[in-house]
TrEMBL record:
The keyword Signal applies. This is Uncharacterized protein. It comes from the Bacteria. Residues 202-216 have a biased composition (Basic residues). Keywords: Signal. Residues 188-216 are annotated as: Disordered. It comes from Planobispora takensis. Residues 1-27 form the signal peptide.
Amino acid sequence: MTAAAVTAMVVATVVLSSPGISGPDTAAGVAVLPGNTPEQLRLVRECMPRGGPVHSMDGDWRIAEHGAAEGFRVLAEYRDEGGSTAPVGSEAGFVLCTPTDQKDMAERAVFTHWGFKPSGNLAGLSGDLQPDAYTGHTHSYTVGEQRLQKDDVYRVVAGRAGDAVRRVEVDWVGGRRTSARIANGFLSHGSSAGRCATPRTLRTRRPRPWNRRPSR
């Protein structure tokens, strides 16, 4: 990744359902994992072909204590022309599933604990928005008879959102704005490096209540 690629900034604008609603109480329900449809269960299994999360340096080394694929749920699936991006989670943590054209070159299903603590803290949302993943995945594939390997970078933003949040917009450096997918109290967004800069900093802005006058 070049130096220029790590100097960009992305801003998330959080839109609430009612003016002035914020705080821990808006997170009610985030601790409840959704069920999987048959199609979503297939996505989970394809994302974790070893039957569960694996070691970050060895895709064949499954980390059994991080759980089995059957215990993970598709939390919020973002789709575009590149494919499907989704955090796939359990009560303890999650892995990120990003688009791939060739399954044998897919990104490793590496586990992250909720709250970045070993026990996991799924319900530990202290405000309206909790970014849990803010990273880049390598989209590797081969071309031609020689099977020359190509590597693109896919930008991923994922996290948890309180009940009052209705929309999360991502403002990329350069002026491009996109909306994340929100479902079940979770959010997901993916974008190829060719269409946006690399996110470095994430912050939230809440709209000013309509009936509050600015201080003098």
